[in-house]
Amino acid sequence: MSGRLDRRRFLLTSAGLATAGGATLLAGCPERPSTDPPGGTPSAGGAGETVGTAGKVGANRLVDHPTPDVQAVIARGASRAAMVKTAVDAYGGMGAFVKGGDRVLIKPNIGWAMGPEMGVNAHPEIVAAVVKLCKEAGATEILIGEHSCDKWAAVKEISGLPEAAEAAGAHVLGWGNDDRLYQEVDFPDGKSTRSDLVAKDLLECDVLINIPKFKHHSATGICGAMKNQMGVILRPQSYHQTPDPTRGDPNLHVNIADLASAVRPTLNIVDVTNCCVSGGPKGGPGAEVKDFGTVIVSADIVACDALGTEVLGICRVEEVPHIRIAADERKLGALLKADSSAVKTIVA
Question: pTM score, two decimals?
């Protein structure tokens, strides 16, 4: 690794994003007061770009909706690559998010040793299309990272995603349980999870692109853009086990909102094509898969989950607590509907 990454680590530490000693996080870490107010500080780097957003971890830039009056784009069609390009172009183009020389981290949902037809991982064609757009925008390094649920060797062999991403020009990483690849950072706006061990690649990237597979999840109703981010931490299972000190019930939804408050993707590109609508998150024999022929693009992670839930149609947004918490309590985004004037729907 070059001195560029060493400098990034120095900047992150100087900004207070690293905790001394890389201490191991235990489930139910102690409460620490949150001191930062909500909101961000305009950057001198360009129109719509923000830095220093309270509670955010990592060096990746944030870009407000680059196309006036469009907060999200829904593309429908038969070709995944065409939907990705059409939606991103309608949202301002990849060049609004990725600049020449950037180091891009793409975080797809690639947790399971299942083929693309099972509808539980981000589809290889969608990820490859995003890699291509990043290269065209001038990215010099494109990483794919995931802490998979199934064993990484099996995921790589069966899912088809690593092969497609590498053929398109990305380098694929399975972070797994190697704690050397993670760094503990504070979540200043967290209510239950106040710090966590987050993949260093995420903390050091210029651009973070989140590619969830929208699908059914037995514990949360849906698995979308916010839930997908549990693949960037060392111990995602702890989010299922940490008790909520304020509500007295299982705290998975609050922990997901805590993570979303801290890890803020530059862009979300949501795969709502062939999706597992029962038996999720892993699917398998007996699980139902439906093809919705849809890709959603937005910098707003809440809008992505609200729109994805509407498209999937297996539950209502009001029935998914982490979406409501992120929107109403954390003010992380808008609960958009597909018929909103702020949503552009196009055919690819």
Answer: 0.86
